[in-house]
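STRUCTURE:
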């Protein structure tokens, strides 16, 4: 069932990209979309900490360039790609790599068409500032909620753990069962019904789009906020709430 839901969402996104290409006459042009794997320095600069997944080699950042715009996506399966825009609307999306190519390209195209923004990851002090702004946003919009954080984003985790009742979930086996900021990290493959009963607010990494687990969060009745650059275009298309204030 989950597999069919995932295929439906990805197909919906591909159809949306094709419609954008048709509407703007892009299918008639020779358009090259090049995805390249960014270095650590290019991706996040020099943040004040060294525990981000990309710094530990757990993730790579793919970047697609289209026109004068760029789009990015985090993935654990990276490579380079070059192809025409119309090919992306029909390419298979079976692997994390293929999905990262498509999603980063979708972000770039939608940025070029001014249909989304903040598609480039923040650098240097950006993650710290983002975390502080996240606390302000939560306090203003949700009060003092119990938070389920899916995706161990260290800067966010540290700040949130100091102010809220927090549970952290991750898929990285090196993190699961380990204590981070006074909280034992739980397995991201879990009983979401139980978590939903406990939590007032879900904060979910946009990278769930690349690994297909996003379908698990779409039916959740509690408020869900997706964070990061990966989900930029998709959030705009599907009307999902996204938080990524320091991205450019």
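SEQUENCE:
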């Amino acid at each position: 069932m989950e597999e069919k839901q995932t295929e439906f969402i990805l197909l919906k996104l591909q159809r949306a990209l094709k419609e954008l290409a048709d509407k703007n006459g892009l299918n008639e042009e020779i358009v090259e979309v090049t995805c390249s794997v960014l270095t650590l320095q290019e991706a996040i600069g020099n943040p004040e900490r060294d525990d981000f997944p990309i710094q530990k080699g757990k993730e790579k950042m793919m970047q697609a360039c289209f026109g004068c715009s760029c789009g990015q996506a985090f993935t654990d399966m990276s490579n380079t790609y070059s192809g025409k825009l119309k090919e992306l609307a029909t390419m298979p999306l079976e692997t994390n790599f293929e999905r990262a190519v498509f999603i980063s390209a979708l972000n770039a195209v939608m940025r070029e068409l001014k249909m989304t923004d903040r598609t480039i990851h923040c650098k240097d002090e950006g993650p710290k500032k983002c975390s502080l702004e996240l606390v302000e946003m939560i306090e203003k919009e949700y009060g003092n909620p119990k938070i389920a954080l899916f995706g161990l984003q260290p800067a966010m985790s540290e700040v949130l753990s100091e102010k809220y009742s927090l549970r952290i979930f991750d898929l990285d086996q090196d993190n699961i069962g380990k204590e981070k900021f006074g909280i034992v990290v739980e397995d991201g493959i879990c009983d979401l019904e139980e978590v939903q009963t406990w939590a007032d607010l879900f904060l979910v990494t946009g990278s769930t789009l690349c690994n297909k687990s996003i379908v698990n969060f779409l039916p959740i009745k509690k408020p869900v906020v997706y964070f990061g650059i990966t989900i930029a275009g998709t959030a705009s298309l599907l009307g999902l709430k996204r938080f990524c204030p320091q991205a450019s």
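REMARK: The CA atoms of residues 93 and 99 lie 5 Å apart.
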